[in-house]
Amino acid sequence: MDNNRNIFASKIGAILAAAGSAVGLGNVWRFPTETGEHGGAAFILIYVSFMLLLGVPIMVTEFAIGRHGNGDVSGAFVKISGGKKGWRWMGLLPVVSGFLVLSYYAVVASWTLYYAYEALLNGFAGKTSAEFQKDFEAFSSDSVTPVFWTVMIIALTCGIVALGVQKGIERGSKIMMPLLFIFIFVLVVCSLSLPNADLGLKFLLLPDFSKVDGGVILSAMGQAFFSLSVGLGCLCTYACYFRKDVNLMKDGLSVASIDTLVALLSGLIIFPAVYSIPDLRPDAGPSLVFVTLPNVFQQVFGDIPVLAYLFSLCFYLLLVMAALTSSISMLEMSAAYFHRNLHLPRSLSAIVVSVVCVVLATFCSWSFGDWREVKIFDMGFFDLFDFLVAKFIMPIGGLIMCIFLGWVVDEKVLRAELTNNGTLKSPLYPTFRFIIRYVAPLCIFLIFANELGLFSYLF
Ligand code: PHE
What we know:
binds phenylalanine; Amino acid/polyamine transporter I; 459 residues; mainly alpha; globular
């Protein structure tokens, strides 16, 4: 086994890998979709509050648990709790979640890869809005083409994970994250120079609280968890590879800042673009980046085809890279377990997990087409997996980890982990401990109770 190299070589590599996991389709696709559907700035305010109040503390919680484990998530829970063997089961959380999340994430990731390929071949040139709509529907409901692209994206992910922690994950993140930022800045500048960009800005900056209800609050919480990749044990898995001198609190804040910045910048790309064409609406839902945007690129730059070409290509390459840095963290969650605990070679673990995910992802993909009528709890496979991950496992996983670190783990061990054995000043430590002991559990409980209708019995 490659135990010696199972560690990120540099501090910046650790931050970029964690940021790579966090920054993904959640920022560039899910965030604009949710923001568009839930009234713009009001949703963003609630989302950012959840990021600070719950997201960052839970991320640091995951970092602390993971790093304490020296390379093994299930061992980490036992070790940090001072030998309580029952917590070993929590090590299965990232394994199961890894399968679920990658299986539906890969479907949307595959759409981005297909669109990048189409953009490269100049396949969008001269299409009308109705054609974009029709083509997207035909493509996403087809039973073969999206499955082919899903296999491609999972194979790419598998290739990177199989290369190992330093040569695959760390190197991949170090290359893709800076590129992603370059693409984002170019696209923001272009988008802000479009006609009516100020309307898009207003939508992002002026809150309309009339759309806020319990469902919107749950969605904002789900989005904060999803976007930061917290609650599934994904960051525990990565933190197993952190060096002992990484400042967990500082890194948590850096990763959350990068993630929020990318989400807001994506909003700055997408909403000004949407408002640049009079009859388009920001609440187009999931098809926003696959129907609305390519149409915008064609209409706005219709007279200068080379710009339409470059803008589309940059945008979909951005999506592909964002998706890849996240999907490698998802695959790693499950593959690391098979590698560490069942002693399979790393590449074989990655392949086994990938094959299962291809099968599950195929079901998710078909839920947009042939299997549209197949419903479990009134949801198709894709929606079911998304619901289970973002609205259920993430908050519950986060809740359990907060209770674990706040109440089960010896305070001295926690303090030592967050101050690197007393060598770092950690002025935020008391606030962090208070949040994970009281605020986060209470918040998550109240939101769930509200969703389950508990309050309607009481009042
Ligand atoms: N945070 C990722 C995104 O924004 C998604 C993700 C969720 C990644 C869970 C890993 C684990 O796209």
